[in-house]
TrEMBL record:
It comes from the Eukaryota. Residues 1-48 are annotated as: Disordered. InterPro entries: Endo/exonu/phosph_ase_sf (IPR036691). It comes from Solanum tuberosum. Residues 7-17, 27-36 have a biased composition (Low complexity). This is Uncharacterized protein.
Length: 340
C-alpha cells in the first residue's frame, strides 16, 4: 500500500535542522531611506577666549644684580584658566620682575622647608584665608587652591585647641626673631615698612660666608635684599651632626636707630643672643660710628641715609671674624666673612 505524503500545511519535522525563513522586515521599523533631513548636530560649545599680556623691561635701567643680568634676554610665561571661559597668558620679559619672583620663591621655599623640619610627623601646614590682612600684603600674589580634609579621629583627639588671641602677623614678626642655621644659602627680602629680626646660627664647620646687602627699588615699595652664601668644611665620619653653633649673626630692620627705645632694645638683644656680627637696616641716620663704639664692636661698614630714609650699618668683632673684599656704594654692601 503506497505511503501518504505529508501535506504542505502540516507542521515541519521537529528533527529538521533547516531554520525557518526570517520574517520580512516591518515597514514601520525600517529607517526612512528617502528622508533628506540631516541628523541633529550636537550643541556647539563656546570657544575659550585667550587674552595675552606682555610685561617689558625698561631699556634705560641697567641690571642691578647678577641675577637680573643672567635673566636678560629670557622670559617667563604664566597661563591662568579663568572660570568665565577665558585664558589669560602673562609673558614677563622684565629681568627685574623675574628676579623678584625667583628670589621670593627661593625665600618662601626655604622658610617652608625649615619650618616643616620642626613639625611633628603628620602635622598639616597652616593656610591663611586670602581675605586676611597678612596674606594680602605679600609682595607677590599667587592663586592657590587647597583641598581641605579632616584629620583622622586618632589625630583629632590629640589636638588641643588654643583660644588665646594672638597679635597680628606683623607684630609677631617684629617681636620674635626668626632663627636659622647658616648651613646653606640664605636670602631675605625685607620691606622697609616692617620690623624684622633674624638670628643666623653659624655651625662649627662654617669656614667663610659671602654677604651681599643691596637696596631693591620698584614702583610700589622699597626693599632690602640680603644674600648669604656659606662655605662649609667637609664632615668627618666620627663627628656628631648636631654640633653646637660657633657664633651667630643678627639682621635687624630697625626702622630708625635714632629712636629713644632703640638703644634699650638693641642692648637687650645683644645681651641675649650675643651675636658676633650685626646688620642694621633702615637706620635713618648718616653717622653710625656710635653703633659700634657704644656696644663693644670693633669695626663698622655703613651706608648713610639719604633724606632721612634708608641707611645700613654692618658692625662686627675683629677677634672673631675677618672681613675681606669689602665694597660699598650708595645702595650696596658686599664682603666675605672668614671665621677665626
Amino acid at each position: 500500500m503506497p505511503r501518504r505524503l505529508p501535506s504542505r500545511s502540516s507542521p515541519p519535522n521537529r528533527h529538521s535542522t533547516t531554520p525557518p525563513p526570517p520574517p520580512p522586515p516591518s515597514r514601520s521599523s525600517s529607517p526612512n531611506r528617502r528622508s533628506t533631513t540631516p541628523p541633529p548636530s550636537p550643541a556647539s560649545m563656546p570657544q575659550r577666549q585667550t587674552i595675552r599680556r606682555t610685561i617689558f623691561g625698561s631699556i634705560d635701567q641697567p641690571p642691578q644684580s647678577w641675577l637680573e643680568m643672567g635673566l636678560s634676554g629670557h622670559s617667563m610665561e604664566f597661563t591662568f584658566q579663568m572660570s568665565n571661559n577665558q585664558d589669560i597668558t602673562l609673558d614677563i620679559q622684565d629681568p627685574m620682575f623675574m628676579a623678584q619672583i625667583i628670589t621670593e620663591g627661593m625665600r618662601f621655599g626655604q622658610e617652608a622647608f625649615d619650618n616643616r623640619m620642626n613639625f611633628p610627623a603628620g602635622t598639616e601646614l597652616p593656610f591663611y584665608h586670602p581675605e586676611q590682612h597678612e596674606v594680602t600684603n605679600n609682595p607677590i600674589q599667587i592663586p592657590i587652591s587647597v583641598n581641605t580634609h579632616d584629620a583622622p579621629p586618632s589625630q583629632q583627639s590629640q589636638i588641643e585647641v588654643d583660644t588665646t588671641t594672638l597679635p597680628s602677623m606683623e607684630l609677631q614678626q617684629g617681636i620674635r626673631p626668626k632663627m636659622y642655621l647658616l648651613n646653606s644659602m640664605k636670602s631675605f627680602i625685607v620691606e622697609e615698612e616692617y620690623i624684622r629680626k633674624y638670628i643666623l646660627m653659624c655651625p662649627v664647620r662654617l669656614s667663610k660666608c659671602t654677604m651681599d646687602i643691596r637696596v631693591i627699588t620698584n614702583p610700589n615699595s622699597k626693599k632690602f635684599g640680603v644674600f648669604l652664601v656659606p662655605t662649609l668644611l667637609p664632615v668627618q665620619i666620627d663627628e656628631d651632626d648636631e654640633e653646637p653653633p660657633k657664633m651667630s649673626l643678627m639682621i635687624w630692620n630697625c626702622r630708625g636707630s635714632e629712636q629713644s627705645d632703640f638703644r634699650t632694645s638693641y642692648r637687650s638683644m645683644l645681651n641675649y643672643h650675643r651675636p658676633t656680627m650685626v646688620l642694621l637696616l633702615e637706620t635713618h641716620m648718616t653717622h653710625h660710628q656710635h653703633l659700634a663704639d657704644d656696644f663693644s664692636f670693633t669695626d663698622i661698614a655703613n651706608v648713610p641715609a639719604i633724606g632721612g630714609c634708608g641707611g645700613m650699618a654692618l658692625v662686627w668683632k675683629k677677634d672673631s671674624v675677618v672681613v675681606d673684599g669689602l665694597a660699598m656704594n650708595d645702595e650696596e654692601i658686599h664682603c666675605t666673612i672668614k671665621m677665626q
